[in-house]
Design brief:
Blueprint (H helix, E strand, L loop, with lengths): L12 H17 L5 H8 L3 H13 L4 E2 L6 E4 L2 E2 L5 E5 L8 E3 L2 H11 L3 E6 L6 E6 L10 E4 L10 H7 L1 E3 L2 H11 L5 E4 H12 L12 H10 L11
Antiparallel strand pairs: 1-2, 2-3, 4-5, 4-6, 6-7, 8-9, 8-10
The structure holds zinc ion (2 copies).
One zinc ion binds next to loops.
Length: 235
């Protein structure tokens, strides 16, 4: 892929190191490292870490909280409680993660190459949904996922976008919820499509040799899952 498409902040060894430590901590411990922790682990000052995190955030490699003094998300991971809880199927593995959205939840399983149980609630009927998902375990086919806004607007407020990418019992519940709360807006697809998309989008995210995807590569991943048209056009 063209070198020019790789976001600048990932090119310096320092930002690469911080980036990888953030993902490593999320993968191993289920939460984000603090700035102090990153400073200690890298032998840098908190001010230096703050500047590196800011450059990573500007490249959409992670998301900082409103005050810019903590990591809020590093997709597919989120530091704060959101609508999805992930539990490893292996009962001896006591890690847990919050899933920011349906897509991220499948993404965490894909990135970790791990079979998980996902717990969430259908926004329409409030039913508790429990499903098993893994790199080779697709979610039940009747489940539906609703995307709230077009791809071009995802990063206008990415936390809000994730908050609204929810899992529904089925397409009917997603359509009924849309009619009641956001008529004419969003896009509903089946959970298996999003699970397939998450494997390509997030499957390499914590690999040692991860290189940020180019826009074209991600557009191609969407297209392969049949997610085409203006709604899916990346900025
Ligand atoms: Zn429902
Ligand atoms: Zn998300």
């Amino acid at each position: 892929m063209p070198e020019a498409d790789v976001p600048d902040p990932m090119r310096t060894p320092a930002s690469r190191e911080v980036h990888d430590l953030v993902y490593e901590t999320f993968a191993k411990e289920g939460h984000a490292p603090s700035l102090a922790e990153l400073a200690r682990l890298t032998g840098r000052t908190i001010t230096e870490i703050g500047a590196i995190l800011e450059s990573l955030a500007n490249a959409h490699a992670l998301v900082l909280n409103r005050d810019g003094d903590a990591i809020r998300m590093a997709h597919p991971f989120t530091a704060a409680p959101m609508a999805f809880v992930l539990t490893p199927l292996d009962g001896t593995d006591d890690r847990r993660w919050w899933g920011g959205c349906a897509w991220d939840s499948f993404g965490i399983s894909a990135a970790l190459h791990l079979d998980v149980r996902i717990d969430t609630t259908c926004p329409h009927c409030a039913a508790h949904l429990t499903l098993t998902s893994g790199p080779n375990i697709p979610p039940p086919s009747e489940l539906a996922v609703r995307f709230p806004r077009p791809a071009a607007e995802w990063w206008d407020d990415v936390v809000a976008t994730c908050t609204m990418i929810r899992l529904f019992c089925n397409r009917t519940h997603a359509d009924q919820w849309t009619a009641e709360h956001a008529a004419g807006q969003g896009y509903v697809t089946d959970a298996r499509t999003v699970w397939e998309l998450a494997k390509g989008w997030y499957g390499d995210r914590i690999d040692r040799d991860f290189v940020p995807h180019t826009r074209d590569r991600n557009q191609d991943l969407l297209q392969r899952r049949g997610l085409i048209g203006e709604f899916w056009l990346l900025p």
